[in-house]
Write a structure and sequence with these properties.
mainly alpha; 0% strand; Glycerol uptake facilitator protein
């Protein structure tokens, strides 16, 4: 269990280093071109996801996301106590990853984001983004387990662009990004609704997956 928690911590920390660090770099290199900055942010996030899922998936399952852990809890594939430990580590490591990104770019470590991300379209986008992520993971487990690192990396890279919220799809990421007043940030007051929508999307994916990806009868 200790190795699993360590893997979840390292993976989630590097996920946030990738998300926030690439956002800082992209905004500094393309301050007048949000589209280019978002493209760089999306590609970097997809790349780090592929790496950490490939390397750490065999140890912890590579959740790096309380919504994913919740899905496996609902499916009876992880005990409640282990799920709680995973989620606490994911949140703590996500915050640590943000602080590491700030240090690398000589920014104040402790920040609160001022970036407003709110409104029905963005809330609905988080339902769609999280549903899609869990749909990809659960479908991948049923039909192409070895391809999950690629599937998740490609999905998130694309979802940065086809969702109006830029696909947070992860409560730990949402909490951590509220602590960064940079390109990837989210106003802390906007965070609770995003997380609620992510939970709704995850639950909906689990319910559909029970039918669509059920094992074939014996």
């Amino acid at each position: 269990m200790l190795n699993k928690l360590l893997a979840e911590g390292i993976g989630t920390a590097f996920l946030l280093i990738g998300v926030v660090g690439s956002g800082i770099m992209a905004a500094s290199l393309s301050p007048d071109n949000t589209g280019v900055a978002l493209m760089a942010n999306a590609i970097a996030t997809g790349c780090i996801l592929y790496v950490i899922i490939t390397l750490l998936g065999p140890i912890s399952g590579a959740h790096f996301n309380p919504a994913v852990t919740l899905a496996f809890l609902l499916r009876g594939e992880i005990p409640a106590a282990h799920a709680l430990a995973y989620i606490l580590v994911q949140i703590g490591a996500g915050i640590l990853g943000v602080w590491i990104a700030h240090l690398m770019f000589e920014l104040p470590v402790l920040q609160l984001s001022g970036t407003i991300r709110s409104g029905p379209s963005q809330w609905f986008s988080e339902v769609v983004a999280t549903f899609g992520l869990l749909f990809v993971i659960l479908g991948g487990l049923r039909h192409a387990a070895s391809a999950i690192p690629t599937l998740v990396a490609l999905y998130i890279t694309g979802a940065y662009w086809f969702t109006s919220s830029t696909s947070f799809a992860n409560p730990a990421v949402t909490i951590a990004r509220a602590l960064s007043d940079t390109f990837a940030g989210i106003l802390p007051g906007n965070m609770p609704v995003f997380i609620a929508m992510q939970v709704i999307g995850a639950v909906a994916a689990v319910l559909l997956a029970r039918r669509l990806f059920a094992p074939a009868p014996g």
